[in-house]
Amino acid sequence: MTTKPTFRPATGFKHALETRVDEYFRRAGISKTGNLGMYLKALLLLAWLAGSYYLLVFHVTSLPGGVLCGLSLALATAAVGFNIQHDGNHGSFSSRPWLNRLAGLTLDLVGASSYLWIWKHNFGHHTYTNIPDSDDDIDLAPVGRLSSEIPFCSYHRYQHYYLWFFYAFLVIQWHFFNDYKKLWTGKIGQRTFERPRGWDLATLVAGKVIFYGLAFIIPFMRHRWWVVLAYYFGVMMVVGLVISVVFQLAHIVEETEHPASLEDIHSEWVIHQIQTTADFARENRLLTWYLGGLNFQVIHHLFPRICHVHYPQVARVVAQVCNEYQINYRAHRSIFGAIRSHFRFLQSMGRPQPQL
Q1: Which tops the pLDDT comparison, 281 or 147?
Q2: Are the C-beta atoms of 163 and 108 separated by less than 8 Å?
Q3: 331 - beta bridge partners?
Q4: 120-158 pLDDT, tens per residue?
Q5: What is residue 113's three-state secondary structure?
Q6: Of the candidates 43, 58, 156, 339, which lies 20 to 30 Å from 219 by C-alpha distance?
Q7: Measured between alpha carbons, how far is 40 from 84 in angstroms, rounded to an integer?
Q8: Cα(295)–Cα(250) distance, rounded to whole angstroms?
Q9: Could you tell me the pLDDT band of residue 47, with boundaries at 50, 70 and 90?
């Protein structure tokens, strides 16, 4: 098992952050978890998902209608991932554990294991953000090079062009390869994890069976096999591209820090999170609504147990504390600015000796 990175002891900055944020919620008289607005939003997104699926599988007969419903299904699937499963599996959807678990299971509904995601995302990525061999999210080797620790290959010179295509296969890999590889090896990246047993294993298996039934068995009963496969790949490639790009814009950009090794970590954990994370398009209310606040990624990494409906307000508090302690709170004004920064980062990492 890979050695765990060691962070420096917490300082007054962490205490100030937690105190100010707690004070905001106390004065506002609200819970840190989801509220009625969050629950209504979840119902709306699930209705969007179910309606898109119904129209695509049971109603549409023309190619234009199929493309439109397929795109709607893809965007609804990504929205459920950004909003419902993400908050649920972080324990921020509700103050009730059973409701968080129910929300988290929507990830299994769309074909990926919530159990494995928690180990990969909550315990790996959130703890060791952007650290090679510890954050599995930055390991795209040998296809992509997101760290100077990844051996350089000549084709990496073009990764700022071709990786966007590979991003589209993220969800398809979950469905047919990555989840099974983790179960077989007992590892996520270089780190071991506790394999699911009992109800956790039963839930994982049931989720896969239900998804395969919804994605293939039922559609096969109504449409030709090649049509079903064509729509499956089309829909899931859109989902994969949308999800991949959103998460890459939070960490894999020029402005964030990218430790080359464990020895490069010289800060406490909360400062490391701010150094390796960036917000984008914080003034875009529609995008914030759709992304489940994941454009406020700094806030999410500092306070993952706070529901995303509170992120814009909490961001103001965090920015003020960062300013007082002279800590750089990174943010792009627009999503397009973040995309350009990600493109340039990929371009830089495509050189034998990256210049960051």
Answers
A1: 281
A2: no
A3: 279
A4: 999 889 988 998 888 888 889 899 999 888 899 999 999
A5: coil
A6: 43
A7: 11
A8: 7
A9: very high
Over 70: is that where the pLDDT of 271 sits? yes
Minimal CA–CA distance to 124: which of 332, 306, 304?
A: 304
Residue 259, helix vs strand vs coil: coil
pLDDT confidence of residue 10:
86
Residue 287 has pLDDT above 80, yes or no: yes
d(CA 132, CA 223): 45
Nearest C-alpha neighbor of 147 from the set 266, 261, 242: 261
Of the candidates 127, 155, 126, 123, the one whose C-alpha atom is nearest the C-alpha of residue 140 is: 155
DSSP state of 286: H
Sign of the CA dihedral with 194 first, then 197, 199, and 204 last: positive
Q: What is the mean pLDDT of residues 190-209?
A: 94
Handedness of CA 157, 160, 165, 168 (dihedral sign): positive
Neighbours of 42 (CB within 10 A): 22
State the Cα–Cα distance between residues 55 and 72, nearest whole angstrom.
10
Alpha-carbon distances of 345 from 113, 149, 280, 354, rounded to whole Å: 30, 15, 16, 9
Q: What is the pLDDT of residues 173-199, one digit of tens each?
A: 999 999 999 999 999 878 899 999 999
Q: How far is CA 264 from CA 168, 259, 352, in A?
A: 32, 5, 20
CA distance 95 to 15: 23
pTM exceeds 0.85: yes
| Confidence tier at 1 by pLDDT (50, 70, 90) | very low
Q: How far apart are CA 298 and CA 304, in angstroms?
A: 10
**Is the pLDDT assigned to residue 248 strictly greater than 90?**
yes
Measuring CA to CA, which residue among 145, 120, 211 is closest to residue 172? 211
Q: Residue 130: exposed, middle, or buried by beta-carbon count in 10 A (0-12, 13-18, 19+)? A: buried
